[in-house]
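Example complex used in Figure S2.
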Amino acid sequence: MPVALRSWTVGMGAWHALLLAASLAASLAIAPATALAEDTGPRIGAPAPDFSGTDSNGRTVKLHDLRGEIVVLEWSNHECPFVGKHYRSGNMQALQKDATGHGVTWLTILSSAPGTQGSVTAAQANELTASRGASPTAVILDPAGTIGRAYGARTTPHMFVIDKTGTLVYMGGIDDRATTDVADVAGARNYVRLALTALADGTPVRDPITRPYGCSVKYR
Amino acid sequence: MLQWLTASGVRRTDLLARITMAFGAAALAASSPSTAAGGAASEPAHVRLEVFTDHRSIGPGESFRVAIVQHIDRGWHTYWVNPGDAGLATQIDWTVPQGYSVGAAEWPVPAVFRAGPLVSYGYAAEVIAVQEMRAPAAFGAGTGNLSVDVKWLVCHESCIPGRATAHIALEETPATAGAVDPAAMRRINAAWRKLPRDAPWPASLRADATNVELVIHGAGSELGARTPVRFLPLQWGQIDNAAEQVAAWTAGDLVLTLRRGDLRDAPIGTVEGLLVTTSARAGSEGRGYRLRAAATDPPTPH
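Predicted assembly (522 residues):
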């Protein structure tokens, strides 16, 4: 059963698998210590959930193909004021430039469902990258929310860092200042930068899990 | 239940706009600096702030209560202390004269909002938070000027940060007790009755890397077995907000099985939150019990 649950996680989304598992536990009334041995969703120290997506230039991006590279996942919605804080301040662009300049693969993922806030066409996504001076490696369009659900992405921004072996080493907020105020960027503790620095130094990531803050991801 | 905090110099907001309203004899003004870039004065979107107190005047050492009301446009909501999967808790900062004490804001039971696979906790339509305050032990004749800076996030599908300030000018009566404002007192009493109360039952928890089991001893005998209940965690990361919660009633105890949240691999010593019931016995509205459950065994290392 654990194997089956794991394989469903990617195909049908972590949340569905989770609900299924929970209702299964309820119907069997098993003590929780023994039920639900298999967990769903991303886990620090475990392989990051694999995915295949299409980027704003029509290319297929598979996480599996990026073994050997450090990968950052950034959930975004350009109309969200929390995302706006980090782009108006130039914080996100600076981090992207720094990271990709050091060989990191940076994937911005847009999981807004069609017709919801932050939903854009491929052309609009490229325009946003240009107009904001952003430098992600690719922008992945995830209108069905498949990748978002596999990662349990809840907010924009919501950040994940994957090491060269494909292991998840960070998930959470971009920093420790849960506000929409641009003035809070300067003094903030940027967890993504700290995780990337730790990976470069070969030291453990000190804060591997933090609270993501922002607007909700606009799933259907 | 109430923590008295000594108010110290909380930063005062520049007043960009001022709308004066009167509630009883306590003069009150609310102002709404825009949070948008540019600094033009404007009303915050979708939320109107109202602040009032249950006293017209106050005597030395007397306690009084202040209500902080958000009037929220239809379809929009603001957030509880733990906003859940997304959003931001409303933040209240008081600036009060030397010697005044400000208690913690008490929030009513929040609603549970679902959006796709996400769950957040907050308030639609109207929410009244209540704060207890205390006047200094002695003062001369004068006016106690209290001001509050309230920041929130209001969301429908989109989210808009908002902010407003409000002021209360409270007449200080050095030699006599203050006078209450009966209408304001009635409103605050009604809001007070809706606040969560401390759970009368001891609670403990057991946890593994997947689930937390809260054992609430004796809850069944008071609430009645099979009462629909839901646990709302106070802290981020402990509980998966969207996961199903399984309630089992055994021998008067309620055993609630909750899925662990993002911090599932960390030791979990205590869980705090609200046990919310919608029992017919308790009335149609959700009744909230403040619960604190501590681990019975040392946390299992993972």
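The interface with chain A takes residues 35, 37, 85-88, 115-118, 120, 153, 155, 157-161, 206, 208-211, 213, 236-237, 240, 242-244, 246, 248, 257, 259, 262-266 of chain B (CB under 8 Å). The first helix of chain B runs from residue 182 to 193.
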